[in-house]
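Retro notes (design track)

What went well: tokenization of the new backbones is finally stable.
What didn't: we kept losing track of which sequence belonged to which structure.
Fix going forward: every design gets posted as structure first, then sequence, in one message. First example under the new rule, 393 residues:
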């Protein structure tokens, strides 16, 4: 008999009832150090007082009115994002996959309205993850994502990650956009080198192609800059955002230049819930926190502290860990042992990590994690490695 909850997840036998900063408390009272942060969602940790206050205050005033009316919190958050980024305009969604849908529509509509309706193709990369909607799985293209869900949305061309020659050939007079994650998350924490991101921007400019960046997982301070592409000194035309922007409340956005968004007029897209008062009140509080003086510098400093400790664990446990990679507080450890065994052993050590492709475990802690908690994380990861090592003996 099928369970009440559709069985699309292999869930761990853990039931958390409370969160405090970097900690999750199980129903039986155990305290787990959370290095997953809801898959990079809880940017400020669990139950951050600023977010609790923002949500509570808004909940006592107004929950939902729909986008038939002006929403002051939405206007405020949009203006903040425009002021802090490359963007001229913002559309709010509820998730990263919804942001992907709009990004694809926006790119194609741009060229349709510019008198080039043949430019519909979008170049994407192997190992990518852009959500689980029809456009998202078509953009990713992997058999794991697409098998059984055909016919797929057409118009996507997939290239090997980092193959510059293939990219040069792939862009034609039918190409509308290139979509890429500055740091692949689900694909195994694979940062795109700054030089490659710059080269991709130059290539898009040379061919009049729009550049779509998927910063759903790597954005909102995760790499030590507000958005990861800032490290390369470039700007996209369209950017997908979600996860961290809501700090745990379902919120996403598409940021765009006026040029890229030129086709999106009244009636061309919509969302009943997107940009509702609750989500945008929390989003404003998140963005205010992340852009405060010194916040991102602290993320960078703590990133160095965590990475140094992880490199030590790799050296200490070569039978378990092989390599550290990533940027900021978006870290991955390539495992020698099966990553699923490492995740499982972590439950015993009361530390939570997230699996990814290429036998990687992801470490995506709250950006507010303390130095002491980083030390405790390393201790618990050491205990995890010892368990894996002992089980293999």
């Amino acid at each position: 008999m099928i369970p009440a909850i559709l069985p699309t997840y292999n869930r761990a036998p853990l039931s958390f009832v409370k969160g405090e900063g970097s900690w999750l408390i199980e129903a039986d009272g155990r305290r787990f150090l959370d290095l997953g942060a809801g898959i990079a969602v809880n940017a400020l940790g669990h139950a951050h007082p600023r977010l609790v206050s923002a949500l509570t205050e808004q909940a006592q005033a107004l929950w939902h009115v729909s986008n038939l009316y002006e929403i002051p919190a939405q206007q405020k958050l949009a203006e903040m994002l425009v002021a802090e980024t490359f963007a001229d305009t913002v559309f709010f969604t509820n998730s990263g996959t919804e942001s992907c849908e709009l990004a694809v529509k926006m790119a194609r509509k741009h060229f349709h309205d510019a008198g080039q309706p043949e430019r519909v193709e979008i170049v994407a990369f192997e190992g990518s993850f852009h959500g689980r909607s029809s456009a998202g799985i078509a953009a990713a293209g992997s058999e794991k994502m697409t098998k059984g869900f055909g016919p797929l949305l057409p118009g996507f061309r997939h290239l090997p990650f980092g193959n510059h020659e293939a990219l040069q050939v792939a862009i034609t007079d039918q190409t509308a956009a290139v979509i890429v994650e500055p740091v692949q998350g689900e694909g195994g924490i694979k940062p795109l080198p700054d030089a490659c991101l710059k080269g991709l921007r130059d290539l898009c400019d040379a061919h009049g192609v729009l550049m779509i960046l998927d910063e759903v997982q790597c954005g909102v301070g995760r790499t030590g800059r507000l958005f990861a592409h800032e490290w390369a000194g470039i700007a996209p035309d369209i950017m997908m955002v979600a996860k961290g922007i809501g700090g745990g409340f379902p919120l996403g956005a598409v940021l765009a230049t006026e040029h890229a968004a030129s086709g999106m007029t009244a009636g061309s897209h919509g969302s009943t819930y997107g940009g509702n008062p609750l989500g945008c009140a929390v989003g404003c509080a998140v963005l205010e926190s992340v852009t405060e003086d010194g916040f991102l510098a602290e993320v960078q400093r703590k990133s160095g502290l965590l990475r140094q400790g992880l490199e030590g664990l790799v050296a200490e446990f070569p039978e378990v860990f092989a390599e550290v990679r990533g940027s900021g507080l978006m870290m991955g450890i390539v495992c020698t042992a099966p990553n699923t065994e490492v995740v499982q052993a972590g439950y015993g050590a009361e530390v939570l990590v997230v699996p990814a492709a290429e036998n990687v475990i992801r470490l995506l802690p709250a950006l507010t994690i303390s130095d002491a908690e980083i030390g405790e994380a390393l201790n618990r990861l050491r205990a995890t490695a010892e368990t894996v090592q002992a089980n293999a003996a």
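Added context from the reviewer: The mean pLDDT is 96.
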